[in-house]
Design a protein that fits this description.
Chain lengths: 325, 538
């Protein structure tokens, strides 16, 4: 068991190294930060001087090794765009993204499972058919269109909710939260709906399909034969068996929600990591881009580790197999 | 007699009433919520020579010489400046008395010497505007001398973004040095400020929100500078649709970077106002006229751009009016010169855009031996200027009409500008926009036309070299006689216009949108100055 966890962590470190390497080899295609860091009066000599001061003129392997060496000590350098330490920037932006992602995942899971179960039980009902139709829209519409549509309806026309930003936040130690103020909560509604919508439709369709499958299985038929009320069969026996694959998918999706909140954050000017990354790409802010990509790699490594460990908890039969692996 | 007395009395009463009506505006707390697409990169006044950064800093910090909303030079922290009659290489600045910094410290000559020296440091991004400066010294309690390497008649024009910091504050907070991007630490001045300006920094969250409150002890408060805004909340909103939605929903009061396609709709929305006006920036195409052969073209062993007739034909092929109408939806001013109208040296004659003439352009091409046309690659930014990519697409079509097949490569500014700036340049046909912070032709000449070397021509990717012209350009920076200087400027323009070295497209127009209680004119440098704001009754 311990050996398994150690092995996973070792693999995780290798994955991070690989992510950093691939990211670094891409940066030369993003452009030259020096062009953005100097005013138009800068001479060729000024530009060359800054470039060599930042070590940008050195060959790729040298730059990469220097990055790995510094990153190993927790030093990611300072942002070329903002002149502030990258680690501070990421710590500052993390709460906004985590709150948005966790709430979106929660919204998507709860609403997704509920609607999925409903659509499975009343699968010939008009409401269930309507929900299924709507889910097709959710799968096919791009996120930014959903976001802009919501802004138009709820911010511009109805003026119920703010169109951008996080509202008032409260600081709890180094964490800033929008959950404790009215404006913070109002600001969360539209981004959460936008970010969660795709996951919601995914979870809903999955739940419905699994539920239909389980409802056809023998043990449900026997349960019916024993005269157990239909509602109990559906919500206690069938739903529990439906949940295992749904939890797996929802868990893995949480990773991608944290990592790819980029579009939603841009549309709503949400001060999270995604918005930080978009600005960094446009400025060719190499230290921020590198740290962000490594961070996303870390999130995925941790999430898949957690999912593996969750399997062990859910299904005792797996423990033997994993230990033997 | 009597009637006139009654009239006078009525006028007096009316004036008093108006004054009374105007009073609440002064005492009332009036917040102005301001949004644009990008945030200031830093508040360190010398670290980044960049538009939005300077626009925010102008509210907190001030300069010796300033520009009014129309772009004219006006006294700032200096009340007067002159070249010493005894020594033409020394500029003398007389400082304003009774000015204090936000922390209460008086503004002195020591602060000026300190600030200018700070702007001259190797890590400063403003050193490029001060290359002529040899040394700065205090010559009295309210007098500062700036020594230049030779006579420099234009020095004050270079100081309009040179912000003044407090020496004691800077030393206390360890910011006597400009932010070095190689260091591992954040400079205190990045998020803290102590200026003499009309607004005091209250809080700063980069990329999120910057709050400033009115400096009630501001020296410059006057009839033209009413300082009615009591608080500024500045929010960058990156997505165009969201920024406009925030204005429509009343969450912000004033928006910059209004997309051209939204202008008409916003104009027709009740309770909103849109102001438009020319920016100090011209958009144009450049091409390699100096190389023996082009890499990206279909002609072997020859450079078609080296032939003046080809350049003239291309200039004639561009239908500027069509670009203005279709691509810019009317929001541009077509031109025939790469110089915005605010600049010294500009004449309506130079500005006249050549009329499109496809037949004559084709004839010229045939005469130059390219009757069958040729192929070439055009590099274009897609996130720098208003509809930059659209302009390039239009140019591709227009060049196609005269048989020049253009392959368009449009990419982000971080990839595009290095192509132009690298030595040798890595583009042979490109789009660039150019603003002139000194409002003088010399600035354009030395960056755009002078032969590229260590000091000059850093934006001249034409590979154009003309020693005679270079000499004339260099003479401008030390010619003190205005009349002689202007004659040389006119002469240089005549030469380069005849050569058709660049293909000018238009002067860029800006649009600001705001609630109808505001009327903020477009600033030529795109740095709206909110101390001038007067609130209108709705």
């Amino acid at each position: 068991m311990t050996a398994y966890i150690l092995r996973t962590i070792g693999q995780g470190a290798l994955v991070l190294l690989a992510v950093a390497f691939i990211a670094f080899s891409m940066f030369r295609f993003v452009g030259d930060p020096v062009a953005n860091m100097m005013g138009q009066e800068a001479t060729l000599a000024d530009r060359a001087e800054l470039s060599s001061r930042l070590g940008l003129d050195q060959p790729f392997p040298v730059q990469f090794l220097r990055f790995v060496r510094d990153a190993a000590t927790g030093d990611f350098g300072i942002s070329y765009r903002q002149g502030r330490p990258v680690a501070t920037l990421i710590a500052e932006r993390l709460p906004a993204t985590v709150e948005l992602a966790v709430l979106s995942a929660l919204f998507a899971s709860v609403a997704g499972v509920a609607l999925g179960v409903y659509a499975a039980i009343r699968r010939r009902g008009i409401v269930a058919q309507g929900v299924m139709m709507l889910s097709l829209v959710g799968v096919s519409l791009p996120t930014f269109l959903i976001g802009i549509g919501l802004i138009y309806v709820f911010a511009v026309e109805l003026r119920w909710l703010p169109s951008f930003g996080r509202g008032e936040t409260v600081r709890l130690g180094w964490w800033s939260t929008g959950l404790l103020t009215a404006s913070g909560l109002k600001s969360l509604v539209l981004p959460v709906l936008t970010l969660g919508f795709f996951q919601l439709t995914l979870i809903m369709r999955l739940t419905r399909a699994e539920m239909l499958e389980v409802m056809r299985s023998d043990f449900v038929r026997f349960a019916r034969a024993r005269g157990i009320p239909e509602r109990t069969i559906e919500l206690r026996h069938a739903l529990r068996n439906t949940m295992i694959p749904v939890v797996t998918v929802a868990g893995l999706q949480l990773g991608s929600v944290v990592a790819f909140a980029i579009v939603t954050e841009t549309v709503f000017q949400w001060p999270g990591l995604g918005a930080l990354f978009v600005n960094a790409v446009q400025f060719a802010d190499v230290p921020v881009m590198a740290a962000y990509l490594v961070f996303v790699g870390l999130v995925f490594v941790l999430v898949s580790l957690a999912v593996d460990l969750a399997y062990l908890a859910f299904d005792p039969r797996l423990r033997g197999t994993l230990a033997a692996r | 007699m009597r009637a006139s007395r009654i009239l006078a009395a009525t006028a007096a009463v009316l004036a008093a009433a108006t004054a009374l009506a105007g009073l609440p505006g002064e005492a009332e707390a009036r917040t102005l919520r301001w949004a644009r697409s990008g945030d200031a990169l830093t508040l360190d006044p010398h670290a980044q020579n960049e538009g939005p950064t300077a626009a925010v800093n102008h509210h907190i910090y001030e300069t010796l010489v300033a520009r009014d909303p129309k772009g004219a030079l006006i006294p700032g922290l200096a009340t007067a400046w002159r070249i010493l009659p005894t020594d033409p290489t020394i500029w003398e600045f007389t400082l304003r008395e009774g000015v204090t910094f936000h922390d209460g410290a008086p503004f002195t000559a020591d602060d000026v010497v300190f600030s200018l020296n700070r702007a001259l440091q190797p890590t400063s991004d403003y050193k490029g505007l001060l290359t002529s400066v040899d040394g700065v010294s205090k010559a009295g309690a309210t007098t500062v001398h700036v020594k230049t390497k030779g006579p420099n008649p234009l020095l004050p024009n270079n100081l309009t973004n040179m912000f003044m910091m407090n020496k004691a504050w800077s030393e206390k907070n360890n910011v006597a040095k400009v932010q070095d991007f190689k260091s591992k630490e954040e400079n205190f001045a990045v998020r803290n400020a102590n200026g003499t300006g009309p607004f005091v920094l209250v809080s700063r969250e980069p990329d999120v929100k910057t709050v400033m409150k009115r400096n009630d002890g501001y020296w410059g408060k006057s009839a033209t500078v009413p300082l009615e805004v009591s608080e500024i909340v500045y929010t960058p909103i990156k997505a165009d649709a969201t920024r406009i939605a925030a204005l429509l929903s009343g969450e912000v009061d004033f928006v910059q970077d209004v997309p051209v396609q939204d202008i008409e709709r916003l104009k027709s929305t009740p309770n909103l106002r849109v102001t438009t006006g020319p920016e100090n920036r011209t958009i144009f195409l450049g091409m390699d006229v100096g190389s023996a052969d082009l890499k990206s073209d279909s002609v072997q062993g020859k450079n078609p751009f080296a032939d003046k007739r080809v350049r003239q034909a291309m200039n004639m092929a561009i239908n500027r009016a069509a670009i203005q109408r279709v691509v810019m939806r009317g929001q541009s001013v077509p031109t025939g010169v790469i110089m915005p109208p605010f600049v010294n040296g500009w004449t309506p004659d130079l500005d006249k855009a050549p009329a499109p003439d496809v037949a004559r352009a084709k004839a010229l091409l045939a005469e130059a031996g390219y009757g069958a046309g040729f192929q070439v690659t055009l590099n274009c930014p897609n996130d720098r200027y208003v509809n930059d990519e659209g302009i390039c697409q239009a140019v591709v079509g227009m060049m196609g009409q005269i048989g020049i097949k253009v392959n368009l490569v449009s990419q982000s500014k971080t990839l595009h500008f290095p192509l132009v700036q690298k030595n040798p340049p890595e583009t042979e046909f490109y789009l660039v926009g150019w603003g002139v912070p000194t409002f003088d032709s010399e600035y354009i000449f030395s960056f755009m036309y002078h032969t590229r070397d260590a000091k000059f021509g850093s934006w001249n990717a034409l590979r154009y070299a003309n020693a005679d012209l270079d000499r004339k350009i260099e003479s401008l920076s030390s010619e003190v006689d205005a009349q002689k200087r202007n004659a040389t400027i006119a002469e240089i323009w005549k030469t380069v216009q005849e050569e058709t070295l660049y293909l000018p497209i238009h002067h860029q127009t800006l649009a600001y949108a705001m609630t109808s209680s505001l009327d903020i004119p477009v600033d030529p440098e795109n740095q709206p100055k909110l101390k001038y704001v007067v609130f209108k009754s709705m």
